[in-house]
Amino acid sequence: MRTFISSIIVCALLGLAGFQAQASALSETLQTASNLDLANHPTWRKLLHYEGNAKTSVVLTDDFFLSPDGKRNSAAELTATIEAYFSPWGKDTNAHARCRFPARYFWLSKQLALPDYNLREEKCQSLENWALFNSVKSVSLLLVSGYFGNPASTFGHSLLKLNTDSADDRSGLFDLTLSYGALVPENENAFRYVLRGLFGGYQAGFSDKYFYTQDLVYSRTEFRDIWEYRLALTDDERRLLILHIWEIVGRKFTYYFLEKNCAFRLAELLELVVEGDLLRDNGRFWYIPVEVFHQLKDADKLRQDTRGVRLIESVRFIPSSQRVLFHQLKRLPPEALETFNAIVRDGVVSIPAHLEKLTLDQQILVLDSLLAYQQYRLIAAEPDPPRDIREAKDQILLARLQLPPRAAAPVEIPELPSPAEGSRPMEFGASVVTEKNKEPFLRLNWSPFKQELTGQNSLEGDEIVVLDFAIGVFEDQDGAFLDRFDLIRVLNLNTLSTPVEEESPLSWRVRVGVDRADHKEDDRYDGVVSFGVGRAAKWRGTVTTYGLVDVAGHTLDPYVRLRPHAGLVFDWGATRAWLYAGVESTDYNLEFSEVWGGKIQRKLTDRSAVYVEVSNEDTKRAAVGMNWYW
To answer: Where are the domains of the chain?
Structure first.
């Protein structure tokens, strides 16, 4: 009995000593953290999502904080986080703070001596299974091109991707990606969607999915190109970033379409491992995806200058499935392409009749192309593709299996430069304008987003301009006047020139704005809403031609006008030019007058360009000016 009692006493004394040692370690750790002022360290505040000098975290989810005051008090959250580290493990070990907030403890372990700290804690099985500690080799930031089918996607999208570089998955389709988006109810009214998106009416969050799900949506359904920026992070930088992604997936934020959007939140994440606040510091009330990549290039230069190493390891172009298909069809000889379109037009029952006139090699080319086309249509029609498409694909596959096997030649697709390789989207310009029978005047123009035909950020001739103001000032008059205003101006030139049945070859444009009209020396203003359709083609990669017919509504007589016109766009690298000519109806009897104009612009630096433009819109005019981009 005495031995038993003695054992109990010894165990109690050992337990008390252990408790006292742990309490001493906790007290010492808290004191060291206080002495180092870790609660106000920029990285700690970023881990809690305190933006800049804000006194409140932007995370809305309560369980993101261990302290009841953690959302408003970074010091209280630091204390609670350190105390939680020393707390005993419960039955559900994955619920312990060490497993829920591994990035906090990883960072704290670099600042403090945390007893028994391990980056990979065996008890955190959920984290261990998700984080792929042994598999992730690098991190990439993805820029997705714009999509006109959704207002929130017009200016593009951005994603983060964790690369495993698996030998059996060279495209990275099973790599994990991180996306940020608004939580929008199904069948939300478009007007309500835009209004709430602008003024913070939606919550938003991060979600992690395999890259193939993103590729399915962006590349294969919406036909959007992607540019992958692989980042050269150190092991510790990569670990901190990945561990913090684990912490924030599923947490809620407030969504703002213009600023606190996907681009902003991913830039905020990357600032955990990129010096300073370079990626979000654009000084504006909006933030679009391409901004991240312009800022990323600046951060890359800074890292090279200060540390002698690069931040951007490489940039890879991932073409849309539509671009891949059309380049594949371009390889078909004229007779084979004609047969391909005939089968698409007449249906798969016509395959034997159409193929019999071709050689064996041509038959294989046509059937391989038809399989690629049906697969393209199937995926584009997800999640409920029509049954006839599936059946057509099966019939084509059956016909192909009756011919000898043959390896398909790889499709060579010219790389499209990233939008971030061009000029920045916001433009300020100054020019001198001369008009017939009027004194020259100074014109100042500004747009928060301008991707125009003659700009260095225009891809394949497409144009999108938003809130484009042009203000004129006469030297001998007081005040200023509105010379022109475009609420929005879009030109979509479809230059994938291979003619394919059932695929629209049309190009289109839309404009909503206000023009200054010349009328007996007095300025009047004409509101314009116009829409045009036509065709376009690209020649040798440097010249694009198009023809459009516009129908426009005006606030000045004639209130409805037609404008058939043609245009030429020249891309000579640092110099780009645009010329157009046509006619516009002047009354309802279809009397027409000539309209013509053009602009040539020369890049000086990444941030500036000079230009000359002429036109006879309302009155003959010419301008010489300079643009600055930032």
So the answer is: 26-125, 138-318, 332-401, 422-629
Q: Alpha carbon of 102 to those of 47, 58, 89, 188, 481: distances in Å? A: 11, 20, 15, 37, 58
The average pLDDT across 77-102 equals 96
Is 603:577 a contact under the CB 8 Å cutoff?
A: no
Residue 169 pLDDT class (50, 70, 90 cuts):
confident
User: Lowest-pLDDT range, 18-32, 52-66, 229-243?
Assistant: 18-32
- Paired tokens of 35: 């002495």
Is residue 349 within 8 A of residue 392, CB to CB? The reply is no
Whole-model pTM: value is: 0.88
Cβ neighbours of 451 (radius 10 Å): 25
Domain 422-629 sits in CATH at 2.40.160.40
Burial (CB < 10 A; 0-12, 13-18, 19+), residue 186, is exposed
pLDDT winner (highest mean) among 136-140, 329-333, 501-505: 136-140
Q: Give yes or no for residue 15 having a pLDDT over 80.
A: no
Give every CB contact of residue 623 below 8 A, 6+ residues apart in sequence.
Answer: 431, 432, 433, 434, 443, 611, 612, 613, 614
Instruction: Identify which of 73, 68, 69 has the alpha carbon closest to the alpha carbon of residue 44.
Output: 73
**Mean pLDDT of all residues in 287-294:** 90
Q: What values do phi and psi take at 6, rounded to 5?
A: -65, -40
Which amino acid appears at position 511 of this protein?
R
Selection from 432, 448, 546, 433 nearest residue 491 by Cα: 546
- Measuring CA to CA, which residue among 211, 207, 208 is closest to residue 170? 211
Residue 523 has pLDDT above 70, yes or no: no
| 157 vs 142: CA distance, rounded Å | 8
